[in-house]
From TrEMBL:
Pfam annotation, one family: CzcB_C
Keyword Coiled coil listed: yes
NCBIfam families: RND_mfp
CC annotations in GO: membrane; outer membrane-bounded periplasmic space
Ranges for domain CzcB-like C-terminal circularly permuted SH3-like: 312-372
Organism in which the protein naturally occurs: Novosphingobium guangzhouense
Domain annotation CusB-like beta-barrel: ranges: 240-301
Ranges for domain CzcB-like barrel-sandwich hybrid: 87-227
Regions annotated as coiled coil: 116-143
InterPro entries for this protein: Beta-barrel_RND_2 (IPR058792), BSH_CzcB-like (IPR058647), CzcB_C (IPR058649), HH_CzcB-like (IPR058648), MFP_Cation_Efflux (IPR051909), RND_pump_MFP (IPR006143)
The name this protein goes by in its record: Efflux transporter periplasmic adaptor subunit
Entry superkingdom: Bacteria
Amino acid sequence: MKLNTLTYAALPLSVAFALAACGGGDKAAEAPAAENAEAAQSKPVEGKVLMSAEQISSAGIQLGRPTIGGSGTVEIPATIDGDPQGTQVVSAAIGGRVVSLTRNLGQSVGQGQAIAVIESREAASLNAEIEAARARLSLANSNLGREQRLFAQKVSPEQDLIAARTAATEARIALRLAQQQVSAAGAGGGALNRIAITSPIAGQIIARSVVLGQTVAADAELFRVANLSSVSLSLNLQPQDAGRVRPGNTVTIKAAGREATARVTFVSPALDANTRLVPVIATIDNRAGQWRVGEPVTASIALSDSGGGNAIKVPTTAVQTDEGKTVIFVRTKTGFQAVPVTLGDSAGDMVIVKSGLKGSEVIATVNSFTLKAELGKSEAVED
């Protein structure tokens, strides 16, 4: 009987131990699942950078929104030049000594106005030829008139009249040729041995390379005259930008509190051999005289075909590369999110975003490389 009592008493204890063992097994199975859930909740989101407003400010990160639409522009330094079609070199057609200069640098001159006088033996010879040709023509005309009277009186044969008429024609041609030779050399200089050098266009003297009394050779440059009512703007563009510049595109010019608009008139089909850039010329209306030849300016040139009216553009400083992907950092409530994007053509310091952005986001536009560095740190810690 005692043995049975002990057996029955031990039975509840064994059941209790068995139940305890079963309960412990359930808790052991649930523990790893809880740990995994907690780890999943603490794992950082890929491409996310946690940063407060104070940290953003101290890092010098500037925010902005993408630009939607517009043709895109390129801002580059440029130089004001004289209009190639409105600039003329005044040279000496014959050699000699400069005895008079009537215009100085910056002074206005009219078309055909004398600006210098050259004294030369060649000038004397040309002027003398005119006088001789004029005298021969006068004599030939006189002989022609006499032969016409004699022929009318039937005293002189028709053959003599024809010869006199031919001689008068030849003398007239010789005089015209002599006058053209003097005209090519210059105008009358007031004496047989002098030739006046005249301006071929109306404008201003922008260069003078001679002084009074100087002996100059034939074809030597004496002056440079420019019609500055229209001036040119010389630009040099990168080939990728020049490909979207067409004649007629607008150029905005700024310098020292002044601003004007020009139009592109020429885009070179070839690169400059030294700079490897594309020369571009624009024309500026300068009737007010506010732009000077040689003046440095800042030019903002509009680009054609820059993605259409709904194109999304961001500054190139907003674009970063992370693990081979092109990303832009978009502002979130807790910091930034690196958003992968696909880029299109560039437009100066802007680039077109073909996909990845809607255009309404706030993005990091300056010092976004700081966010790239922070993202790299987060990925290193995670690994």
